[in-house]
Amino acid sequence: MSAEFLSLSRSYSILFARLLDKSKFALISHSRKEFLIRNQFGKLTVQLFFNLSKQFSAINLIECGANDASVSRRFINEVPGRSAIAIEASPFVYDNFKNANICKSLSYVQIGLSNKKSVIEFNIPKVTDESTSIFGSFQKLPQYYSEYSTVPVKVEKLDAVMKASMKINAPTVMWVDVEGEAFKVLQGATNTLLNKNTIMIYIEVQESTHYKSEKRAIEIVDFLEGFGFVPVARDFPLADLYNLLLVKRSVLTEAVPSLNQYWASLNLIRTPRIELRKPSQTLSNLKRIILRIIPEIFWPILHRLFALFGSKSSQKAMK
Question: Which residues, in sequence order, are CB contacts of 18 under 8 Å at separation 6+?
Fold first, then answer.
């Protein structure tokens, strides 16, 4: 097991709990506070990826599961002279964005990635028109979607795609968001991972069997440690599904300044005390806090006041 990974997971759990506790008197719901804190973790972790890319003088980006290739375009636009390959499995997503990604320094490719060359059914949930849907994966999620449309997609090893498309002869970073196929993608990328110029990976991982044939986070970390990668940061979009940032040990010392800045920024995360997006929810939260701190003898007065502002629960309590 990766001691670094276990230590990192524990540190984030403690930090997340502490940040949530600091906002307990905010006039927003507990679930909303959680969402806002998780969202900030995500934004700061993505920013760390781009900050480290600059610090490592990264020239190339490999984006696996590119969707609209927005990560590749941001990478290219931030520093002149960079290049990227953005690989997307869905032929529908590719068709929707191929014209937007016509760029000399960006190669936008439609192919699936796995641990061997094959043809696999790509599944698109029937929640939107398949021609415009951004959803889809090689695995089905029956706990979320019951109906799918399918299309056969060619899959290839990432090493083969890279051999045909981009030479890794300068600092290179990877972004992997492939909906339950990360471990297979890594298995098909051993030459890419062994290359001394491949120095950082941002990758979606899971703790549970969210995708049934996917490996868990600790197994992916153990696999990548065999290529010299160390986990340094993660985010919290879901409890069992999140993104992990790993860098090669050979550049870990260079990463320290950005990592220190990143951890300091996490400690500054706060949720707002009040949000006006749902006035009725804000009113309800305010009432709950006041009821908790004033004697019960004053509750009838409080309910009359909140009933005037339209609180249905206070109107019911007065009957």
Answer: none
The residue assigned the tokens 């040990």 is 249
Q: For residue 215, give every residue at least 6 positions away whose Cβ sits within 8 Å of its Cβ, in sequence order, or none.
A: 182, 183, 223
State how far the Cα of 162 lies from the Cα of 197, in Å rounded to an integer: 13
Sheet with 229-234: list strands edge to edge: 106-110, 83-88, 60-64, 172-176, 198-206, 241-248, 229-234
What is residue 285's predicted lDDT score, i.e. its pLDDT? Answer: 67
- Of the pLDDT bands very low, low, confident and very high (cuts 50, 70, 90), residue 284 is confident
- 21 neighbors 276 (Cβ within 8 angstroms): no
Encode pLDDT of 308-318 as tens digits.
Answer: 777 778 777 77
* DSSP conformation class of 103: B
Annotate 109-155 with DSSP letters as a single string. Answer: EE-EE-SS-EEEEEEEETTS-TTT----BSS--TTT-S-EEEEEEEE
Q: How far apart are CA 89 and CA 114, in angstroms?
A: 11
Does residue 26 register a pLDDT over 80?
no
Radius of gyration of the chain (CA): 23
| Across 15-34, average pLDDT | 79
